[in-house]
Design the sequence.
């Protein structure tokens, strides 16, 4: 046991062992990975504004609560259409001489994952209000407010991007909320967060740990109303609000809406699946249904929920009806 | 499986967290009330069975009592008389003329009647209970509530019956005994037996024999010619808390190293108070997100400020400060260079100040956890570490002991490894793409395991044997733990990114390595607990050992928890939730902070000859300990529930709403922890403050004599009078 009593042997041996392990479990895999992974062909480089926005995202420490990785397990499916792969991050290089590479994969989800948020929730109006005060659109949110990315102006120019913040969240200040350059850059970055498609013939990895038990239970219960409510909460509520009344000047109400209660099912399904931008007084709606891969059952449940809540009482639809319309709507979307 | 786990949690929790019922389905509530009904019926049944057997026993006892001839019992009584009673008996016989008055007790039949009535009543209640329990199959909340309401008075009736019966039975018994006592008195009076009297007189002498207490000691007065008894309390005051052993006197260290150590520990204390004040504010922000709208104080910027201050400012400075005591002491030599120590202290403080300002201003490294300081800031720490390493290594090199004590393997290796970790993670010319994340896993885990854990283990290997005053249990276990810790801990970083885009083989190695961690953890835990073995009474008498004991217990628990968390299923459940936040705090606080506190309370009184008020040390300990539990348990429960909600595909915002109560509890626990740090800071102040050092009259008197100051004549006169 001489080695334990000789500082000239003990410490170099321990150090060398650690260095060797470090080399094989950290340095070598990291270098190999850098070498062997290329960005996907569909990956777009960040625009100037989006790059600036990413720097703001880094500076504000958003990664502390929002991850950017879709794991290959079923529960992460809500955050992206396929599991993330090393190539998704291959285009990200060192931020600057002073700052390290920021893959921003994160280790905590106090808030939702943002890998694909550009597809899921890229609306300009919603995001700007949300940044000014998240609780203006999502009452239960605990995200910080980023008011320093906005001005409050009495007089606005034609160039100003005005944000329609409800009076309740103005904290007694008068004037209009105008987005600063930084807010728009951050918005550009959020909108740029989209999963790139895999090239042609490559199939994405499978999601593991499928929820077989849960889907059986649902099928057994026979009712789709609970399902519809959950779908609404997860996908629609942040804009149209829990009470279905929307947000004045930003998102239209569904309560008493002509589309929801009317007979034009084609239009209704089309809006859910492919989004909507026909009314100037409201924000643009993204293709929520397509992005979230809604099937006809889910769309039917959602429509039935919206048609039977907040005092709405329109005729219920069946899954078969919706399936026909969806096939048609998909075609028309492709043609467009 | 998922729903099963959930059911268990739901059933178990309402006791602690009533709010949980809100978040869960109504069906769980129904199951719980069915349980209450069943429980009541069981209680009633038990009550009735108890009553039945109590009656049976009393009746059979009475029967038995009647069959035995009382004269036999009286003989037994007479033989068992004690000294005083014999005395009285003999006196009575001498006088032999005194009469005795008797009073007859009435044995009322009333209690028995009452008992029977109650018994019947409760039988009635029993039949009702059974009938209703049958109906409880109908799972309707209204019916269940009604049944519970009806069972409550029946239950109360049974309890009342039990109390009444017990009393009645007791009074019958009492009456019987009283009667017998009277008979016995008559019997004693009637005895006329001189032999018996002589026997009893002898017996009395035998009973009265006692030792005089100096059989072994002799009559010589006690002396302590070798001065073995020291520090003995001659006066015992009334105390409200258990008195603890005072710090033992040690030869004083040189003033310059004392000053250096105290400055290290003082800075650490300051950063602890500041860092956790920030942590406290962050905890509040979870329940009150609109507390402020200032960019420099926003959650995203302050979170790393908190973690980095407690990492580098508090724990690192605290550990290095204690190292400046431990490393030279176990080498039996002096520290190589005091100057390098000061430079390293300055650099580390500078690093924390610069890093904090940078983070609050929005300048960070790009998002890796614990790697938020940019490299120029971290470079200050790297220099400080290299200086410290050189200093400690050269101290060990000039040691006067043959062996290198185990503490010094751990402490110096920790320094070597941390320098390697920091360089690997921070050298600014590599890590693109996913390479950054691979290094991140390695960095954040080795940062914890190779710096904080390894170094702290080194400290524990010194302080625990030293405070117990007994050598460490096994050197060989220490060797095993040391090498396996290096091998397994280094390879498990990737378990923070299970199911991610990192190569699967690396994830597998990490999971396997996490299981391998069982070896060093169990080895070290056995080593420490076996050192404690047979010395547990010292824990109760010491105010430092409880801190070390907590550190050892948490080392075991948290490391094993870490192994469990690395598995694939637990990654589904717990990854990304607050469970990991709870785990991190259990580890960093429970192991590292408690060990540092124990170390500070152990050595600072030796350096300054001043102790902290013992009840304040106790307050610090309990606030920290209970606060940590209040912090970590709600987060673990909430994190688990949140993971389950995600796995079931519930809307994300619902999981945020569900967490609110748990975040509130976390803020409460955090407040307790923060209060404990203020108490600790006060204690540290009491141990180190310079002014009004208590004057040791004896010491002072001799100083005066040495100075040659002549005693003032009038004072001397007064002494003579006394």
Sequence:
């Amino acid at each position: 046991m001489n080695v334990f009593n000789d500082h000239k042997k003990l410490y170099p041996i321990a150090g060398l062992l650690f260095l060797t392990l470090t080399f094989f479990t950290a340095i070598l895999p990291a270098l190999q990975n850098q070498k062997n992974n290329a960005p996907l062909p569909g990956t777009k480089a960040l625009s100037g504004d989006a790059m600036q926005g990413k720097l703001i995202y880094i500076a504000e420490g958003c990664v502390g609560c929002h991850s950017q990785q879709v794991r290959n397990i079923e529960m992460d499916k809500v955050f992206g259409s396929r599991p993330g792969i090393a190539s998704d991050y291959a285009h990200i290089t060192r931020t600057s001489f002073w700052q390290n590479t920021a893959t921003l994969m994160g280790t905590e989800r106090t808030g939702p994952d943002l890998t694909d948020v550009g597809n899921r929730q890229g609306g300009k109006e919603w995001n700007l209000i949300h940044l000014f005060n998240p609780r203006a659109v999502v009452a239960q949110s605990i995200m910080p407010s980023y008011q320093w990315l906005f001005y409050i102006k009495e007089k606005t120019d034609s160039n100003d991007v005005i944000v329609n913040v409800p009076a309740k969240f103005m904290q007694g200040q008068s004037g209009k909320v105008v987005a600063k350059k930084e807010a728009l850059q951050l918005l550009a970055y959020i909108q740029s967060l989209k999963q790139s498609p895999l090239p042609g013939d490559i199939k994405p990895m499978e999601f593991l740990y499928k929820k077989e038990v849960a889907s059986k239970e649902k099928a057994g219960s026979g009712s789709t109303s609970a399902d519809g409510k959950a779908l609404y909460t997860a996908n629609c509520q942040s804009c149209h609000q829990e009470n279905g009344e929307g947000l004045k000047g930003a998102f239209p109400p569904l309560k008493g809406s002509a589309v929801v209660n009317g007979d034009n099912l084609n239009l209704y399904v089309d809006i859910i699946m492919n989004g909507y931008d026909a009314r100037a007084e409201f924000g643009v709606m993204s293709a929520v249904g397509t992005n979230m891969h809604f099937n006809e059952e889910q769309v039917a449940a959602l429509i039935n929920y919206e048609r039977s809540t907040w005092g709405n009482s329109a005729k219920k639809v069946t899954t078969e009806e919706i399936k026909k319309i969806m096939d048609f709507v998909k075609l028309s979307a492709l043609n467009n | 499986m998922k729903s099963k786990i959930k059911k268990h949690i739901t059933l178990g929790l309402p006791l602690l967290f009533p709010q949980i019922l809100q978040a869960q389905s109504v069906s769980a509530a129904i199951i719980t009330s069915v349980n209450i009904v069943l429980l009541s019926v069981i209680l009633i049944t038990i009550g009735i069975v108890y009553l039945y057997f109590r009656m049976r026993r009393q009746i059979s006892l009475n029967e038995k009592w009647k069959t035995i001839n009382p004269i036999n019992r009286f003989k037994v009584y007479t033989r068992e008389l004690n000294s005083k009673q014999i005395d009285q008996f003999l006196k009575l016989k001498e006088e032999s003329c005194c009469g005795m008055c008797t009073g007859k007790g009435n044995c009322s039949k009333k209690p028995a009647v009452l008992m029977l009535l109650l018994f019947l009543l409760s039988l009635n209640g029993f039949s009702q209970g059974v009938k209703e329990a049958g109906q409880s199959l109908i799972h309707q909340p209204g019916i269940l509530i009604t049944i519970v309401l009806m069972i409550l008075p029946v239950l109360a009736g049974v309890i009342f019956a039990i109390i009444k019966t017990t009393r009645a039975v007791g009074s019958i018994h009492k009456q019987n005994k009283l009667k017998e006592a009277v008979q016995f008195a008559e019997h004693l009076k009637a005895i006329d037996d001189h032999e018996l009297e002589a026997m009893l007189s002898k017996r009395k002498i035998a009973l009265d024999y006692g030792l005089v207490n100096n059989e072994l000691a002799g009559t010589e007065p006690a002396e302590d010619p070798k001065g073995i008894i020291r520090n003995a309390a001659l006066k015992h005051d009334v105390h409200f808390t258990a008195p603890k052993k005072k710090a033992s006197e040690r030869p004083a260290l040189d003033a310059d190293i004392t000053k250096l150590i105290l400055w290290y520990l003082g800075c650490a204390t300051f950063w602890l108070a500041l860092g956790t004040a920030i942590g406290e504010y962050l905890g509040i922000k979870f329940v009150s997100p609109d507390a402020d709208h200032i960019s420099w104080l926003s959650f995203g910027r302050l979170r790393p400020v908190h973690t980095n201050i407690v990492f580098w400012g508090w724990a690192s400075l605290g550990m290095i400060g204690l190292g400046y005591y431990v490393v030279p002491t176990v080498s039996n030599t002096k520290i190589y260079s005091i100057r390098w120590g000061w430079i390293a202290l300055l650099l580390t403080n500078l690093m924390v100040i610069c890093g904090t300002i940078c983070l609050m201003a929005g300048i960070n490294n790009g998002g890796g956890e614990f790697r938020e300081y940019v490299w120029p800031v971290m470079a200050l720490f790297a220099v400080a570490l290299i200086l410290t390493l050189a200093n400690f290594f050269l101290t060990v090199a000039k040691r006067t002991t043959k062996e290198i004590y185990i503490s010094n393997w751990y402490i110096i290796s920790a320094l070597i490894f941390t320098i390697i970790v920091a360089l690997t993670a921070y050298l600014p010319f590599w890590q693109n793409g996913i390479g950054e994340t691979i290094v991140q896993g390695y960095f954040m885990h080795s940062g914890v395991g190779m710096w904080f854990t390894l170094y702290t283990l080194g400290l524990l290997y010194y302080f625990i044997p030293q405070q117990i005053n007994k050598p460490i249990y096994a050197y060989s276990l220490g060797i095993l733990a040391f090498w396996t810790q290096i091998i397994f801990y280094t390879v498990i970083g990737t378990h923070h990114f299970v199911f991610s885009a990192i190569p699967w083989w690396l994830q597998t190695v990490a999971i396997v390595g996490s299981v391998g961690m069982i070896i060093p953890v169990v080895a070290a835990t056995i080593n420490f607990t076996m050192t404690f073995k047979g010395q547990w009474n010292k824990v109760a008498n010491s105010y430092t050992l409880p801190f070390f004991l907590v550190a050892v217990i948490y080392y075991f628990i948290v490391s094993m928890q870490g192994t469990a968390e690395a598995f694939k299923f637990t990654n589904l459940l717990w990854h990304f939730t607050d469970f990991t936040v709870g785990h991190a705090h259990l580890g960093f606080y429970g192991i590292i902070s408690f060990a540092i506190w124990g170390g500070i309370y152990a050595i600072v009184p030796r350096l300054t000859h001043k102790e902290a008020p013992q009840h304040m040390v106790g307050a610090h300990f309990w606030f920290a300990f209970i606060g940590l539990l209040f912090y970590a348990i709600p987060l673990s429960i909430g994190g688990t529930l949140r993971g389950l909600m995600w796995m079931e595909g519930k809307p994300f915002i619902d999981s945020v709403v569900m967490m609110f109560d748990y975040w509130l509890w976390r803020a409460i626990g955090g407040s307790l922890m923060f209060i404990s740090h203020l108490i600790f800071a006060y204690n540290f102040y009491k141990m180190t403050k310079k002014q009004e050092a208590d004057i040791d009259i004896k010491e002072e008197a001799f100083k005066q004599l040495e100075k040659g100051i002549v005693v003032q004549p009038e004072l001397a006169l007064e002494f003579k009078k006394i």
Remarks:
- Chain B has two domains: 2-95+106-207, 255-423+432-690.
- Chain B touches chain A through 98 residues (CB under 8 Å).
- The CA atoms of residues 54 and 531 of chain B lie 51 Å apart.
